[in-house]
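sanity check this record:

:::
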Amino acid sequence: MSPTAMAAPTIKPKQPDGEADQQLQRVETLHQQLKAEHARAQELLVRLKGEEYQASRDLPPKTHDWVRGSKHLDRKLGEYRERAKRLEKRSGGKNNMDIGIPELKAEEREIRDLEARVSGLEGRVRGFEGLPPDKEMALLEVEKMRKELEALARRRDAMFEGLIEGDK
């Protein structure tokens, strides 16, 4: 075999010229797109470095204040949780955080009922005011008052009869 014959397959292009032209055209198109994208990225970078996107000068003091406030709120939250635990222990383990408006209204009704009952009992107790603490002495006092009441009732009746007879 001759050297020319042996070199021919190596030298001979493997693709027709049309395909190489198409690939070259694709590469040039991609290169143009990359240039355009690079230009847009450069413009965006210039805009992002502009005054509009710069941090304000008072940002560090504000950040410091926010961090300090956040730490303060964390401490307060811990205190409130401790208070809640203490209140829960005092209330016999009931979780008062689950109480809603209906439960509060029911408790309010119970309290009002108890207040009414207490008022009634106080009224009954007032009826015993002025009585001696000793039971025997109190019974004697009640008997004395009953006789006085009967005497007043008789006097009233007599006065009423006197009025009726006087009208005749």
Remarks:
- The mean pLDDT is 85.
